[in-house]
Design goal:
Order of helices and strands: HHHHHHHHHH
Strand content: under 5%
Distance between the termini: 41 Å
Structural class: mainly alpha
Shape: flat
Radius of gyration: 19 Å
Number of helices: 10
Length: about 210
C-alpha cells in the first residue's frame, strides 16, 4: 500500500513541467543556463550537480522543452528511498525498517501538496543520498569495518553534499562513523587497508 501510494504521487504529475517556485524559478532556470553554455548566476552557493545533469538531458534532446523528462527522473528518488527501507528490513530481518518505511510515506503524504515533492525540489533527493550512505553502513555485519562499504558510504555522502548543502552534515557524520568503525576493528585490519581507504575517501571529498 505504501509503495503504491508513492507510485501514485509519481504518476500524478507524470507529463507535467516544473511549476512550483523553487523548481521552476531556480533549479530548472540554472539547468537551462548550463544548457545554454553559461555558468548559473545568483545560485546562492547551492550545489549544481543535479542542474548540470538536467542540462545534459536538454543537451541530448537539443531542446529545453522536455522538462517532464528531468522532472520525472527526479521523481524516482522518493520511490527509491522506499525500496531502501524494504531491502534493509528484508536483509536484516528487522520489522522496524518496515515501520520506518510506513512513517516515511506518512511524512511524504503530509508534505505532498500534491506532487510538490515530485516537482524538482531536491530535498527528497538529498535525503535519498543521505539514507543511501546510512543504508551502506547498516547492511548485515554493520559492526565490522569493510573498506568497500566505507568508500561507498563516502561516495553517497559526497553525492548528498553536491546535491544540497545539508549533505555536508551527513558527510561529516559518515566520516566520523567510519573512523569509529576503524578504531573498533583496529585489531582485525592492517595499516595498509586503513591508509588506502582513507586516501580514497579523501580523494573523493576533494573531487
Amino acid at each position: 500500500i505504501c509503495m503504491a501510494l508513492l507510485f501514485y504521487y509519481f504518476i500524478l504529475r507524470f507529463k507535467s513541467v516544473f511549476y512550483f517556485n523553487d523548481a521552476a524559478l531556480s533549479w530548472n532556470k540554472w539547468a537551462v543556463q548550463w544548457y545554454n553554455g553559461f555558468f548559473p548566476v545568483n545560485t546562492w552557493l547551492y550545489p549544481q550537480m543535479h542542474t548540470a545533469n538536467w542540462s545534459v538531458i536538454y543537451q541530448i534532446a537539443q531542446t529545453q522543452d522536455i522538462q517532464f523528462v528531468a522532472r520525472n527522473v527526479n521523481a524516482l528518488f522518493p520511490m527509491a528511498t522506499g525500496f531502501l527501507f524494504i531491502d534493509l528490513g528484508l536483509k536484516k530481518k528487522n520489522g522496524l525498517y518496515f515501520l520506518g518505511f510506513a512513517g516515511y510515506v506518512f511524512i511524504i503524504t503530509l508534505l505532498n501538496t500534491p506532487g510538490s515533492l515530485m516537482d524538482g525540489f531536491l530535498d527528497i533527493t538529498v535525503a535519498f543520498f543521505c539514507f543511501l550512505a546510512f543504508y551502506e553502513l547498516h547492511l548485515p555485519d554493520d559492526s565490522l569495518f569493510k573498506s568497500r562499504r566505507a568508500v561507498m558510504s563516502v561516495v553517497f555522502a559526497c553525492a548528498a553534499a553536491v546535491t544540497k548543502q545539508p549533505g555536508f552534515y551527513i558527510l561529516a557524520v559518515v566520516l566520523v562513523w567510519n573512523g569509529i568503525l576503524m578504531i573498533k576493528n583496529r585489531r582485525s585490519i592492517n595499516l595498509k587497508t586503513v591508509v588506502r581507504t582513507s586516501a580514497v575517501c579523501l580523494l573523493l571529498i576533494i573531487v
